[in-house]
Amino acid sequence: MLSALFALFVLAFVGLIIVTVIAVMLKLTVKLVLLPFKLLLLPILAVVFIVKLAVIFAVGAVLFSIFIPLAVILGLFAAPFLLIGALT
Predict the structure, then answer these.
(1) Burial call 21-60: b when 16+ CB within 10 Å, e when fewer
(2) Taking residues 58-81, what's their average pLDDT?
């Protein structure tokens, strides 16, 4: 009885190894099949990434150019009140 149980465990272990090897082989096959598509899409993704960085930089520059004059105007209006507050 013990040898039959041991044989069942060995059979299950070998089956698990076979299933694992088949899964790894399928994964490698899918990676090799999809590699040309990946290599074709890399330049497109690079261009998209560079455009995205340029847009973010441009939006930051626009916001910076809007906030500096607002800060100057706020400073011009707030300076007399700050001086009066500091003197009293």
Answers:
(1) eeeeeeeeeeeeeeeeeeeeeeeeeeeeeeeeeeeeeeee
(2) 92
